[in-house]
Amino acid sequence: xxxxxxxxxxxxxxxxxxxxxxxxxxxxxxxxxxxxxxxxxxxxxxxxxxxxxxxxxxxxxxxxxxxxxxxxxxxxxxxxxxxxxxxxxxxxxxxxxxxxxxxxxxxxxxxxxxxxxxxxxxxxxxxxxxxxxxxxxxxxxxxxxxxxxxxxxxxxxxxxxxxxxxxxxxxxxxxxxxxxxxxxxxxxxxxxxxxxxxxxxxxxxxxxxxxxxxxxxxxxxxxxxxxxxxxxxxxxxxxxxxxxxxxxxxxxxxxxxxxxxxxxxxxxxxxxxxxxxxxxxxxxxxxxxxxxxxxxxxxxxxxxxxxxxxxxxxxxxxxxxxxxxxxxxxxxxxxxxxxxxxxxxxxxxxxxxxxxxxxxxxxxxxxxxxxxxxxxxxxxxxxxxxxxxxxxxxxxxxxxxxxxxxxxxxxxxxxxxxxxxxxxxxxxxxxxxxxxxxxxxxxxxxxxxxxxxxxx
Amino acid sequence: xxxxxxxxxxxxxxxxxxxxxxxxxxxxxxxxxxxxxxxxxxxxxxxxxxxxxxxxxxxxxxxxxxxxxxxxxxxxxxxxxxxxxxxxxxxxxxxxxxxxxxxxxxxxxxxxxxxxxxxxxxxxxxxxxxxxxxxxxxxxxxxxxxxxxxxxxxxxxxxxxxxxxxxxxxxxxxxxxxxxxxxxxxxxxxxxxxxxxxxxxxxxxxxxxxxxxxxxxxxxxxxxxxxxxxxxxxxxxxxxxxxxxxxxxxxxxxxxxxxxxxxxxxxxxxxxxxxxxxxxxxxxxxxxxxxxxxxxxxxxxxxxxxxxxxxxxxxxxxxxxxxxxxxxxxxxxxxxxxxxxxxxxxxxxxxxxxxxxxxxxxxxxxxxxxxxxxxxxxxxxxxxxxxxxxxxxxxxxxxxxxxxxxxxxxxxxxxxxxxxxxxxxxxxxxxxxxxxxxxxxxxxxxxxxxxxxxxx
Lengths: 456, 456
Known about the structure:
Two copies of one chain form a homodimer. Chain A is built from 14 helices and 18 strands. Chain A is an alpha+beta fold and 456 residues long. Chain A has two domains: 4-196 and 367-455, Zn peptidases (Aminopeptidase, 3-Layer(aba) Sandwich); 198-252 and 298-365, 2-Layer Sandwich (Alpha-Beta Plaits), CATH 3.30.70. In chain A, strand 1 (57-61) and strand 2 form a beta hairpin. The longest helix of chain A has 22 residues, at 118-139. Chain A starts with a helix and ends with a helix.
């Protein structure tokens, strides 16, 4: 439920909320690039400042990497404690030349705000801050206790987060955790995510000849590392869409009947999706629907590849080196440690004798499945109905949020509410990322309702 | 034969010849890169100037691309006319960080001069100029007529050369043509090349999704263009080392017995070759020796590949686009037009429906086979014996020289002498390209002897 007072406040302060979001988005807090280190720090300070303005005691905690912002609301005796997770760092904006407006100069067009981080995760996280502000302004006090935990390395694998959780685990024990980093199922179909895929991400660097070679003089007598790499990568996928790594599917939990039934009812607009993607057919693992492939089946993708001459014109070279970045999305109960073992062995077994291969583990995350039947989940369901005017659907997401596992494991936390107000076609990780401003407002409403529902 | 006068002159002027070569090498005449356009012009002027200094009437002829230098020696009545071909442009020097000394700051170490173009083709071409100088200084006049035809686009496919030949064909009729762009078989084994491989070179650009995609949200439902490209490229080669294109071998002329016998006697130091290449095994088409694979069998190579995220760390993207540069070395009687047809059809037949593929023809050359039994060939054989102190071996080269075909076809010229003084391990097209200064001198001696042998 959402009271009239809170509802009105949110409506009346919309423009100021949007302006505040724009200010937050204008800080280029790109965690992956060292030249933005100072901007990342600025964004942390900005978040801390906003929390303090709401009466939270907040601090910017240094780590070995980017800082973590920790804020706690004034104590409400006897009320439950909700831990809210978000991240203030954003993906790199490249390729820059494909943005209509600059990635860090937020622009409002057609009811959307366009900027890197608009949905992932600044717009979504800010709804929690604005919900607090709205409740305080309308009701004078919060109905529950809140801890806001906002990190700056989510886009680069959250390297400092685990150590922080371990060091602060007593301080962070809560009745439930809300993760701001989720998504609606589609525009107009708010969702609660109950499953996430896991992730393994590797870089393969391969060298065969000692030096670059003239392809006339040496073509036909040596292995070309690009050919070897292409052959290796091609071998990872079978024509039926499955991943060819031996043992890859051993630990995959089959979907339960109720899951397949429910997934089949999700309102997927296949034509709109094809249009968005610019394709006429959607492909993937035989025997599974589009949504099942995305949410409940593991995959293999090459994220980048390079080698040899990439410049203007023709250079008849056999390069010495080639490389690729590859990743696998995992599902319960696949273990990324086991998959890494299988992967490394497979690569080693499929290299010619003179290949010098280096495999670097760049990041990883375990897959997640959360029970839908808890009181916290039911509260979230009612809160979204209040905020959006319709019940949420339950989905298994295709992406990974590594911190969810860390929170589950280190804080012994099973009540994980994976919520989100942005949409899959908002371009997270792509140029022209955006966030619907009406959904920004609905998200603030839902979050405020959530606080009241959890308080009982 | 080489007279004592000419021989002494060459020996006594060695240092000055080397200094002159260094000056020529210091001009960064990189034809492939537009930022070096002026340097290319400078190199043309340098060549023209050197020819004029020798009494040639010379001019720098503009073309739609880089200019062509044309020089003619003073007429010697009743003597044959030799057309000498060379090129004053060089390959791009990248990767720059692998050069010990800068590519355009010639450095002499261990008896070699190191610079881009040291062997290909500046060092080799300059031997003809120095041979003329030496004969004029020692004997007062040349024994034959010479035309020097020096282009500036050999490294980028000689686009202007054909038009020039057609426009000047009457002016360029000669009794024989010497091509400076060949190679010794190996250090200490001078060679005459009687065969060249042909070349087809294509760029494949592939796009599937409309935009870059988040691999969590969309992984498992769309074709990844890197995966499609890798699978395509992998399919071009079979495990036995042959090229899988249907019909690729249809027109290949089998080697004759005498060729296979002779090739088997060539003094190939396999261990030194493996060492140079940094490999423990040499691979290639089953049923053929190393040299047969290089000289008389066609091949397929990927020269460059790119797509997706290549930067620091992990970006979980499915890119919209990927691309590659591929080339095929051809042998007589394969036709590059026919191979291009086969190639384009094969790519089109192996693309998923939503793939948008563009194939760009970047350059091509027909394969070449020259008769070894002509008077001109015999003259060249004696000249090299005089210059190097040993008979040359006869080899089929692995590389391509497109202008040879143009000369054959447009100038109706069969007496083509493919000569060279550099060696395969000189790093043509690689960093730290070099030329042995003793061989520079032997080349000048051989060229001077050639002029006398051809004059009869």
